Amino acid sequence: MDILAQYGTLLIAIAAFFGLLMAIGIGANDVANAMGTSVGSKALTVKQAIFIAMIFEFAGAYLAGGEVTDTIRKGVIETSVFADQPDVLVFGMMSALLAAGTWLLIASFMGWPVSTTHSIIGAVIGFAVISVGSDAVDWHSVSGIVGSWVITPFIAGIIAYGLFISAQRLIFDTDSPLENAKRYVPVYMFLTTLTIALVTIKKGLKHVGLHITGLEAWGWATAVSVLVMVGGYIYIKRKFATVKQDDNFTGVERIFSILMVITACAMAFAHGSNDVANAIGPLSAIVSTVEHMGEITAQSRIAWWILPMGGIGIVIGLATLGHKVMATVGTGITELTPSRGFAAQLATASTVVLASGTGLPISTTQTLVGAVLGVGFARGIAALNLGVVRNIVVSWVVTLPAGALLAIVFFELFEVIFLNSRA
C-alpha cells in the first residue's frame, strides 16, 4: 500500500507507456492481419488499408469502446486474492502489459499473426502463478482458449470453403460470369451487411448503452441488409453496364473489390469497438487501483486518455510493422484475389457472430487465418504454402507460454526495483 501512495503517479506513467507499447503491438499484428486479405487481394493498397484502419479502428475504439471494461481479461484470474496486496496486482498488470506488448512486437517483426487476447491472457496467468499461485487461475477458461485454437479456425475454414465454392459455381464457372455476378453479388452483399451489422450490434453498440434484444438485432440487421442489397443491385447494373464480354473475369473481381472495401471498413470498426478496448483492460485496472489507493474493483471506468492513446498506438503499429503480418496473411498462405479474400473476410465475420452468440472463446486472428486456409484448400492442397502454415500454428501454440514467461521475468524485475527502493 505504501508503494502505491509513494509511487502512484510514476506507476501510472510507466503503465501508460506499456499500454501504448501494447497498442502498437495490436496495430502491428491484430489490425494488420484483419487488413491482410484486402491488401493481399489488391482490393486495397497498404496506404489505403492504413488510412481505413486509422479512421474506423479509432472510431470503433473511441465511440463504441465503452466507458466500462472488465479489468481482468476474460475472468482468467480471481481479483479477490489480491485484496490484501493491491501493489502486487499493479505490478502484475504492468508486467502483463509489457509482456504482451513485447511478444506482439516480436511476432509482428517475424510476420506471425498471433492473438492479442491470448498474449495478454498468457501474461496474466504468468504473473498470477508466480505471485499468488496456480489456485488464482481459472484453468477451465484456459482449457477453453486452447480448444479455440482448433475450433474457431476450423469453423471459419469450412464457411470460407463453402462461400468460395458457391462463387465458383454460381459465377466463375458459368458461360456469363459478369451477368451472373450482377445477379448474385447483391445476395453476397446482403449476407455481408447482415453479418457485419450483427457484429456491430452485438459487440459494439452494447458499449454505448444501447441494449438491443436478439430479435431486434436481427430485425434491424435484416432491414439494413435488404436496403444495401437493392442499392448494390442498382449500382452494379449501372457501373458495369458497358464492360465488354472479354473483360468478364476482370469485371467480376472489380465487383468483389467493392465488397472487400465495405467489409474492411465495417470489420475495422467492429474490431476497434471490441478487441482494442478490451485489450487495455490491464491499464484500466492499474489506474483504478492506484487512484482508489489499493481498493480493487471488479470493473472500472476507463480514464479519458486511455482510448485515444490506444488509437494512436494502433496507427503507429500498423504503419511501421503492419506490412509484415499483412504479407503473411495476404500473400504468404495462399494467393488471394478479391473474390477469395471476400470469402475469407465474410467467413471470419460470420464466425465472430456465431461465437458471440454461443459464448465460444474466439481469436479474430486465428479465425481469419482459418478462413484463408479454407479458401486455399478449396483450390487444392498445392495452393497452400505449408511452411508458412506450420510457422503460424507454432506461433499460436507458443503465444500463451511466451506471454507467461515474459510476464514472470518482468514481474520479478518490478518487485526488485520498487521493493528495494522502498527498503
The share of residues in helices is over 70%
Helix-strand makeup class: mainly alpha
Describe the oligomeric state of these chains in a short phrase.
Answer: single chain
Distance between the termini: 14 Å
Number-wise, the strands total 2
> How are strands sequenced across the largest beta sheet?
1-2
Main beta sheet strand tally, sense and closure: 2 strands, antiparallel
Total number of helices: 14
Unreliable stretches covering 5 or more consecutive residues: none
Query: Which H/E pattern describes the elements?
Result: HHEHHHHHHHEHHHHH
Shape designation: elongated
What's the mean pLDDT score?
82
What distinguishing features does this structure have?
two-stranded antiparallel sheet; elongated; 423 residues; mainly alpha; 1% strand; 78% helix
Short summary of the structure?
This protein is 78% helix and 1% strand. The protein has helices spanning 2-40, 46-64, 86-110, 116-131, 139-172, 177-203, 214-239, 248-279, 281-291, 306-320, 322-332, 338-358, 364-378, 386-422; strands at 68-70, 299-301.
Question: What would you say this structure looks like, in words?
Answer:
With 423 residues, the chain is mainly α. The protein is 78% helix and 1% strand. The chain contains 14 helices and 2 strands; from the N terminus they run H-H-E-H-H-H-H-H-H-H-E-H-H-H-H-H. Helix 6 runs parallel beside helix 12 (338-358). The radius of gyration is 22 Å and the shape is elongated. The model has no long low-confidence stretch (mean pLDDT 82).
